[in-house]
Every structure is written in C-alpha cells, then in structure tokens.
Amino acid sequence: MSANSFGAKSEMTVGGKSYTIYRLSAIEAAFPQAKKLPYSLKILLENLLRTENGLSVRKPDIEALAKWEPKAEPDTEIGFTPARVLLQDFTGVPCVVDLAAMRDAMKQLGGDPAKINPLVPCELVIDHSVQVDEAGTAQSFEHNTKLEYERNQERYTFLRWGMEAFNNFKVVPPETGIVHQVNLEFLARVTFVDGAGTAYPDTLVGTDSHTTMINGLGVLGWGVGGIEAEAAMLGQPVSMLIPQVVGFKLHGKLKEGTTATDLVLTVTQMLRKKGVVGKFVEFYGDGLAELPLADRATIANMAPEYGATCGIFPVDAETIRYLRQTGRPDELVELVEAYYKEQGLFFVAGSPEATYSDALELDLAVVEPSLAGPSRPQDRVALKDVKKSFHDALPKLKVAAKPKAVLPVLPSGTPAADAVEPADAAALTDGSVVIAAITSCTNTSNPSVMVAAGILAKKAAARGLTTKPWVKTSLAPGSKVVTDYLTHSGLLPDLEKLRFYVVGYGCTTCIGNSGPLSDTVSKEIAAGGLVVSAVLSGNRNFEGRVHAEVRANYLASPPLVVAYALAGKVDIDWDNEPVGTGSDGQEVYLKDIWPTHKEVATVIDHAIRKEAYQSIYGQVYDGDANWKALNVPSGDLYAWDAKSTYIANPPYFEGMERKPSPVTEIKGARVLALLGDSITTDHISPAGGIKKDSPAGAYLIANGVSPKDFNQYGARRGHHDVMVRGTFANVRLKNALVPGVEGGVTRHLPEGTTPTSIFDASMQYQKDGVPLIVIGARSTAPVRPATGRRRARGCWASGR
C-alpha cells in the first residue's frame, strides 16, 4: 500500500473494468519540470509513487526524481521494485538452489519452510543448455535434444520440482525458444495488473544481461547479478542511483542492402565511443516509424554491448500492432493502449522531446552492411573492409596460435592413416570459416533478417551453390514461431539444402555451446597454428567464448552468415570475388543473391500469422515427452543427492543463527588477480567448456565424472564446489601477475614465483587467513611486475 504523499492514487476504466493507477499528472502538477522527464524515468517515477512506504521508498526519493538534473553526476539512491523477475537456466538454477537451501535453513531454525517463496512472479526459461553436438543433418535437432536431456536430467528434474514446490514460479521447458524472445513474444505484459486490480507498467530484472531486449517493447528492465535477482524475487527493491539518460534520435530510413543487424552494430559502435556505462539510453525521433518492433528489440538486446543499463523505446502504435500480431488477448492490448495514453507515456510523431543528459543522432540512411570483430561486439567493420581488417588483426591473433603436434582423436582400433579426411579440411588456411551459426536472441527474434537468410539461401541453392564442407553450419531459432514462418514461406528447405538445419531452440554458439569441430578440422587448426574464424548472428564474440579453437569471431546478420558459409573464408572481397561458381559454370557474386527489402517484406506479410503464436504458446508450460517423463520428487523440501555434481545444498546457511554476525573490516588483503580493461562476466564466471586439467575438471574426475560428460560450466552453476573452481577459469584471461600466460592462473604472494591456478592460490590464502581483492579496469599507471601494484579504476574485495 503506497503512502500516496502526492495524491497520485486514482481510478481508470477500460473495457468496463475499473483499475487503480498512480497518475503521473499528480507529481507533474507539483513539479512541472517532471513533464520533460525521459520516458524511462517516468516509468521509474510511477514505480516510486506506487511503492512509497516511508522506508525503502520515501517522499524525498520521489521529489529527487521529479526534480532530476540531467547533467548532474548520479548521487541519489532510490529503490526500484520490478513487477517480475526473469531467469534463464544457467543463471537461474543457482537462484532456485538458494531458495531450496533457504527452506532447509528455515526448518532448522524452527520455521515453516513453505513460507519461502518468490513474492513477485518469477519465470525461468530453459534455453542455455542445448549444445550443437550434431549439425548440418536432418537428425541434428533430435540428436542434440537427446543429449541435452541425458546431460541435464538432474537439473531439469530439480527445476520441475521447483515449479511445483514454489508459488509464483513458472518454468518454460527446454526446446521452446530463447529466454528473451519468449519474453518478447509471450511473457511480457507491458501493462501489469496485480491481484488487487492495480495497473502499472510492466518492469523486470533478469539474470541475463540481454534482458534489455524487452526494452524494444517499451518495457523497462535490465540484467542483474544473482544476489540482486534473488532479493527482487523476495520482494526487495533494487537499489540504484538515479541515472543519466542519453537520448538517441533516429531519422530517415535504412537503404537497400542493409539490415537491422547493420543498424545495431552501428549503434553499438557509436554508443561505446560516446561512453554510456551506467546510463540509460532512450531512442526517439521520426525514425521510430521506420523500425518494426523486431528491429527495436534487436537494438535493445545489445545494450550490454554498448555498455548501457538499458536501451529503451517508448510504447507507440507499433507496440500495439506487435501485441496484436503475437496473439495477446484483446483485453490486454486495449488496456496497454489506454493506460499509456492516460499516463502521457504513449509516443506519437511530433510529441514534445524530453530533456536528456546528452544526445546522439543517426540518419538511418547512412548505415552500411557491417560485421563486428574479431573479438569485440563494438568493433564494427564495414563489410567491404572485413578482409583488410582480418589481415591487420592476424599478426596479433597469430602470436598465441602456435602450431602444436596434435594426434587425431580416433575410435578404438582405427588406424591413424585413415584419420585424415581431405575433403573436410585440406583447404583450411588462416581466415577459413569453420563455424557459421544463425544463433542467439539478437537476430533470431527478427523476421526481416531471418527471412532474408532464407531468401539468400533459396537464390544460392537455385544457382547450384553449396556451403564449404569444413564449415559447421547451424540454425538455432529463437522460438518455434521462426520455424513456423520459415516453413510456411517455403524457405526452410532452402536453408536445409545449404546444411542450415535446426539444431535446437536455445542460445547455442553465442554462449559457447558450439559443440565440437570435426576431428580433422581440429587437427588441421592445431597442427598449422591456424587462425580460423566463426561468423555468427549473435551478440557476443569475446575471446575464447564461441569456441576454444577459433580465435577470430565475427558478428553478422543471418544472410551474411549464410554467405560466409558459402564462401568458406572470412577474408573475401565481396565486390570483386565471387561467392562461388554456379552449376552452370558461371561465377556468382553476393549482389546476385542478396534479397531486396521488397522481397523480404512480401514474405513477412503472408508468412507470419497470429495463429502461430497462439498455438505455440497455448500450452507452453506442458513441455515435450522428454519433459513430461521426468521423475520429479514432491514435497516442500528438496531431496538433495550428496553424489550429484550438478545440484548441491550450498554451505551459505551452515551455522546460521537468528541474529547475523557483524560485518568485519578487510585488512591485510592480497591481490588474487590483476586484470585489465574489458573484463567481462565470461572471464569471471565462464559458461563454456570445462578443461580436464582445470581445477573444476580435476574435481569432476575425482567424483567419477568422465571428461566426455563434463558438460558446460553454465550447466553446473547449481553446484558450488564446481563453480568456485571455475571462477576466472576463462582460457583467454590475462592476469598481470603472470605476464605472458593465458588462463585462470596467478601467483601466490608475496613469495610465489611459479604460476598456480587461481582456485588453488585462493584456497592457500584462505588457509593462511588472508583476505583477497581482485583489481580490474583500465590502468592509469604501468604495472610493476615485482609487486603487482598499479592504480586502477575498479576493484572487487572478498573475504576468506
């Protein structure tokens, strides 16, 4: 119940139903400058008005936001209470593990375990666990799904138990789609209505950084850490500083030959250069009318890559069109339109511009075909310059890719002489494309680029072109709706002719679930010290993330992914070199098979059907036969299996008393790792493969797990003993305490000279009673190797 200090509580009627709302006009009457607040801050303002309780949200907090100073450095803290929490399985499983552990602790303290539940709606989508073990065949999907369930049965059983044991918790089963696309197409309400009949803007936090994709629908939300997400699940507000807001004005129209992917890579580069870390970005201008909702979602998805907390678009007529297209109930669509208009939040052309902290502007007509790489999403390269860019980067990439004597991995009894498959890898050189993946939520939510990929495949197949045999091709749609419209338009068979078969519905290559390369390709890469490439339609290409053997990784639109699979190399001059030779003996160039905007629009107009969304999401929580066949335990408390290496009862509540111990100071700390700029979550807590000679690998082997069954770090985040050994285990991590060495290694200070694993060093420090800090970010002074000291802009401290 809000304290309602400003008299904002009111009523509105839509479709014969009455709803309680908190009117922004009430605060605007008291503070006229609030009328010029950016859209995103008005969403926050409503949030404060509705949740004012005199404790976590106070009257002065509301006044501070209403009197927001655009240029001021953020220094005022507020409590944001999201309407719901969104989880994916890699980062969501630990949250559910903690809830289960809390129930055990509650029982030990003499309370009722069943009282431990999420207090706000919490939805988890299982989408990060499917791996591309098999690709390029009609059996790929079936094979990968079978292995997914074999590897993850414990995790899935645990989540099924959680869905039945906890209130306010739902699980979207595997092979439904990517969490952000399912959120966009189905879960998002845009206008939320609680049990008391109060209507308010749909808001959320999620345990995936790309939660921001929903900003394209006008819904405010962003990614947070697991602790923040758990607090939000338990009804606690998210503490934040009132941010600066950067306005991004769009006008004009994309020219022929460009895609939404080219636009988002351009926007990402511009915003990275501007510097928007910790800020909101808000898009506005006449150009919004030229951007379908899916294009907006593509731009919003990449907010983590351009560094912003969120990248939001306002609710407008396009939002309403999309809600109807995706089969939302008429009652909800009517409420969304009426609510945002009533609150003055509905954008129409010519609306007065808000006041922003800073602003950028982009004419859509200047956007050109682009990729980003070879290792960062903000490093946009014009398509015409990719060949030169790759060769410019090659010397640096080559340094670490020294030739290795590698024996082929052979089945038992297979002679070594039979291991080489010349047709598979004889032509491999630096720049060869070995992975071409249409993957990730960024682009597979967008019909324009997915249809463009299908049309390009159709034209290429008609000319007799084929993808190169050493390229591992895959198609991982963001939802089953994608498969529906590709099938309905007749384009899926053309993609399959080029070996782009569906491999699964989930985040695959972009999260590092690329699966293995063929033994022969791996052998050729290692023996030649080759710098080979992946081209993926994803949002992340950080070093070591896509595949450990692939050092050059480029983000590209889905049609370009297909084109590079046809060419088989990343260093191609598309203007002067052909894609290949057709069945008629004539050279075929990219311009000969590139789809026009009109061709794409024609397919979209007849292939995307409201009925498909309604059918696919109608029984979404039921799952397939594999999901239904899981043997799920019952009861309020989870039956922990002491032998499990996936799910374990964490030690956080051991010895817990009703009154917590006081916080102590950190004294005499040592540096565990001295890291540079652009340290990502994947460096800190990798989601990819587990090396058998790593601390985590050694632990699993000691517990009877064969290396072939290691699965991924992300899949084992529900087990603290595995994950503490996987912290900073990224194979490309560079720690200045051990210069010239890559991986999760450090020195034990002060006397240590021999590199040791970060885990082993931390355990020794713990034994010695020495607290630790990790220093990261951009250096402002040179490293002194003797002491490991430097001045840095950021650090993390930890106790023992």
From TrEMBL:
GO molecular function: 4 iron, 4 sulfur cluster binding; aconitate hydratase activity; metal ion binding
Limits of the Aconitase/3-isopropylmalate dehydratase large subunit alpha/beta/alpha domain: 74-568
UniProt keyword list: 4Fe-4S, Iron, Iron-sulfur, Lyase, Metal-binding
GO biological process: tricarboxylic acid cycle
EC number: 4.2.1.3
Catalytic activity: citrate = D-threo-isocitrate
Entry keyword Lyase: yes
InterPro entries, per the entry: Acnase/IPM_dHydase_lsu_aba_1/3, Acoase/IPM_deHydtase_lsu_aba, Aconitase/3IPM_dehydase_swvl, Aconitase/IRP2, Aconitase_4Fe-4S_BS, Aconitase_4Fe-4S_dom, AconitaseA/IPMdHydase_ssu_swvl
Co-factor requirement: [4Fe-4S] cluster
Keyword Transcription attached: no
Pathway linked to the protein: Carbohydrate metabolism; tricarboxylic acid cycle; isocitrate from oxaloacetate: step 2/2
Annotated Aconitase A/isopropylmalate dehydratase small subunit swivel domain residues: 698-776
Record-linked PANTHER family: ACONITASE/IRON-RESPONSIVE ELEMENT FAMILY MEMBER
Family per record: Belongs to the aconitase/IPM isomerase family.
Function text: Catalyzes the isomerization of citrate to isocitrate via cis-aconitate.
Protein name: Aconitate hydratase
